[in-house]
Amino acid sequence: MGRTRPKSRKAKALFTENTAEPAAPPSVPALLEKAQELIVRCDYELAGRFARRVLDREPANAEAKEMLGVTQLETGELEAAKETFLSLIPPHPEAPAVPPPSAHLYLAQLSDEDPQLALKHYQAAVDTLSTQLKGKERAVNPAATDDDEAEVKRNIVRALIGMVEIWMDPSYDLCFDPAAEKTCEDLLNLALQTDPGNTEALQSFASVRMSQQRPDEAKAYLEQAWSSWKDLDLDDSRLPPIPSRLALVKLFLELELYTPALLVLQGIMATDDQEVEAWYLEGWCFFLMAEKAQESGGKLDELMWEDLARDARDCLETCQMLHISQEHPDTPLLEHVRELISKLEALGIQPSPDKEGSDEEGGWEDVEGSDDDDGDVEMS
User: Fold this and answer.
1) Cβ of 285: how many Cβ atoms within 10 Å?
2) How far from chain centre, in Å, is Cα 167?
3) pLDDT value at 362 more than 70
4) In the chain, N or C: fewer CB atoms in 10 Å?
């Protein structure tokens, strides 16, 4: 009879596996890095969880609080976001010695019911950022801080523009203050001193000039703003963000500069053809061109008003479809789109027949001319 094989070795192996030490929890820097990555990917709910994990371990961690505030802001928890950002500035007992300027910038945007408080937050952000900028200018190795310095300058300019927008907002009494015009001028001059050639500051100056009924000066500012980036590739990091380009288009339309407006919109839609406001502005642009063509004997730059009106209808129909499918929050925009479609319908303008694989932007090529001419559009 054979000897029974002992089982002690197998049992020992199993026992060893079951008692292995658990993996160490991720470090705070790793959690913060993951939260930032999720914010960039717009996964705000999961990003918020990672930020909270950091705060469970380090309740006063300013970076985690800021990320949590961003996620709350993006998910519509405005009061919670306000409380989170307020915890980053004095007199909160856990506020850091030097509050992050971003907290003041976010609080300024969340203080739309109190313009004076919003201005105070913007000014606090400018003061902190200006101090940071002076420190970078004194750095031993300035080349190493070039990118950081440029970002600080841009943030200062955005804060100054935010202040200008409050002073110009007709829903606030500030716009009727005798000092409003000079204050806006001073703020924008400071913005351009801080970051010469900043496109957002130039566009804001153009808006001020238009409010002052000085259209020629407004055109000059817009030309300077647009010329600095209009020939850049669509993937160039120096290209202004889409909201800034959309704002430029609105100014172009106010000044009846239709071709530059369409050129800017072409670049936006090449990057994101689901951008609701871009479709709206393109439709509005073609509508205005059609009106002008009617006033000029039926043609505008050799384009018949009916063709321009049909292009307008096509863009507006696309805008309406995207607005509904995306559940876009801008209700007044949709109302205007429907109003314009009704006017076109009354004129007998129908959408173009669907053509699979056709260019949805209709008569665009006729309006802009050849690609070789893109950089030579005149602003006059």
Assistant:
1) 24
2) 21
3) no
4) N
- Joined together, the tokens standing for residue 203 give 């566009």
List the beta bridge partners of residue 337: none
Going by C-alpha positions, the residue among 255, 246, 248, 206 that lies closest to residue 226 is 248
Torsion over CA: 211, 216, 217, 223 (sign): positive
Residues 31 and 13: their CA atoms lie apart, in Å, by 34
> Long-range contacts of range 325-333, CB-CB < 8 Å, 24 or more positions apart?
326/274, 326/276, 328/276, 330/276, 330/277, 333/276, 333/277, 333/280
Backbone angles phi, psi at 283, to 5 degrees: -60, -40
Which helix (H) or strand (E) element contains residue 303?
Answer: strand 303-304
Q: At what angle do helices 62-74 and 28-40 cross, to 10 degrees?
A: 30
Q: Which two tokens stand for residue 166?
A: 């409050």
Estimate the crossing angle of helix 62-74 against helix 44-57, to 10 degrees: 150
Q: Of 279, 200, 274, which is closest to residue 240 (Cα–Cα)?
A: 200
How many Å separate Cα 315 from the centre of its chain?
A: 22
Distance of alpha carbon 218 from alpha carbon 214, whole angstroms: 6
Q: How much is the pTM?
A: 0.78
CB-CB contact of 319 with 361 (8 Å): no
What span, in angstroms and rounded, lies between the C-alpha atoms of 212 and 298? 33
Sign of CA dihedral 319, 325, 326, 327: positive
Q: Tell me: pLDDT of 320 over 70.
A: yes
pLDDT tens, residue by residue, 224-262: 999 999 999 999 988 999 999 999 999 999 999 999 999
What local confidence, expressed as pLDDT, does residue 369 receive? 42
Q: What is the Cα–Cα distance from 218 to 375, expressed in whole angstroms?
A: 20
Distance CA 72, CA 333 (A): 26
Largest CA distance in the chain: 115
